[in-house]
Input
Amino acid sequence: MNLFVTGGAGFIGSNFIRHILSLRQGHRVVNYDKLTYAGNLANLETVADDPNYRFVKGDICDGPAVTAAMEGCDAVIHFAAESHVDRSIYEPSAAIETNVTGTFVLLQIARTLQVQRFVHISTDEVYGDILPGAFADEGSHLRPSSPYSASKAASDLLVLSYVRTYGFPGLITRSSNNYGPFQFPEKFLPLMITNALDSKPLPIYGDGAQQRDWLHVEDNCRGILAVLERGRIGEVYNIGGLDIVENLTMARRLLRVMSKPETLLSYVQDRPGHDRRYALKCEKMERELGWKPMISLEDGLRQTIEWYGANATWMAGVRGGEYRSYYEKYYENRDSTLHAIAQSGPKTSH
Ligand code: NAD
Ligand code: TYD
Output
């Protein structure tokens, strides 16, 4: 198969490309990525010279460039997104542009080029807050809370509308919080691990009692491959780690494994609109595709901590100027930044 992967220079996309090139030797991959702050070709150094791999720099909102790059591809796996909730709260326009408009552009072109399958990578955040004791299945209501999750829900609905209206071969995965190697350190686990490695404070939003379901990225890649190859057209598949942990418990656990003191924990002002709990039912993946997570949180965390410890050069590369100014604004000057956002609204070009 010829695969068109969007956002393949990011965290999950780069893990997926390595995964598929090692498991499916006849497949060819085009990695189409804009290389935003989150895109990093260093994530793909081990496959850069593989004759079955090709990188094309481009924006998914740029129709002619997408058409040229997608030509001849049998399937699309669409990872590209502005993927960080906090950034979408501070400056929502990029999330709306890429996640909604970009997905629309891809759907139009994939339909014109008659691709055989289009796997849209979405998130459990489209279901919003899940009450204690409850779990979201694929039929649960969409109740997104942040500009990020609203933009992902909008793109999911676009995909489903194309299935229904045009007979388009779309499928959707909704996964829980991924962790593992090559994750940009703006997300919770890599931020906590890399700060702990430097003995810097671990910023806990609010009371730290929010719960997330943690999924190792390799388990997610196995699940996405199963959906690509054997999923039913028009269906949504939840992919979760089935391991729900409070943020504070997770931060304490990391500190223990890393032999760092709990005095590094630092409570900071909460995220506006913060979802308290995500929890997924993933029986459909097991029943229809024989998938379930294989990597325990204990093993996955140990492996991930070791990876960040052993990859100081990669870390130095991603913690450059953009990251430093992000960190300064939203962590070191958090109270004044959040106050300014609450007073004057986000800075946006629209
Ligand atoms: P990421 O931020 O690490 O990577 C996103 C990639 O998309 C980057 O390489 C970036 O350069 C590229 N990109 C952004 N805008 C683009 C544009 N306009 N055109 C082309 N490329 C563009 O994200 P990730 O964590 O790897 O997430 C991948 C997908 O999985 C996203 O769709 C996200 O919503 C979804 N998801 C992520 C998680 C998670 O825990 N990380 C959980 C559930 C779902
Ligand atoms: P995050 O990785 O941003 O993912 P999500 O999309 O689920 O919000 O955050 C995971 C959880 O960790 C979420 O409850 C917010 C919290 N969090 C902190 O407490 N401190 C931080 O510095 C970050 C980035 C997140």
